[in-house]
Amino acid sequence: MKTSIDISSSIFNEGKKLAQQRGTSLRALIEEGLRLVLQKYQQSPRFYLQDCSYGEDGLAEGLSYSQWEEIRNRSYEGRGG
User: Fold this and answer.
1) Cβ-contact 26, 15 below 8 angstroms
2) Where are the domains of the chain?
3) First-to-last CA distance in the chain?
């Protein structure tokens, strides 16, 4: 596919020089660079959620899952909330 792009003259000159040193074309160099950038953005970093479970049953003793206000109050206890 043929297209035209605007590149600053300093980058163009450096690219031509590097392409010549490597025995390749500026086109090949640009394609290689674009492949690297595309590859970088296609590889999303894995997200790992730290296990912050409390004991085996999940809730502190004396709480039930229907006591959300009490759970919230305890979670902010001592933290200015």
Assistant:
1) yes
2) 9-42
3) 60
Dig out the tokens for 76 from the structure. Answer: 């902010």
pLDDT tens digit sequence for 21-67? 999 999 999 999 999 999 888 877 778 888 777 666 667 777 877 88
Counting DSSP H helices and E strands in the chain, the numbers are 3, 0
Q: How far, in Å, CA of 56 to CA of 53, rounded?
A: 8
| H-state helical runs in the chain | 9-22, 26-42, 68-75
Query: For residue 7, which phi and psi values (nearest 5 degrees)?
Result: -125, 140
Query: Does the global pTM surpass 0.90?
Result: no
Q: Let me know: does 18 contact 33? Beta carbons within 8 Å.
A: no
Angle at 36 between CA 27 and CA 13, to 5 degrees: 40
Both tokens assigned to 20: 């010549």
Report d(CA 20, CA 14) in Å as an integer: 10
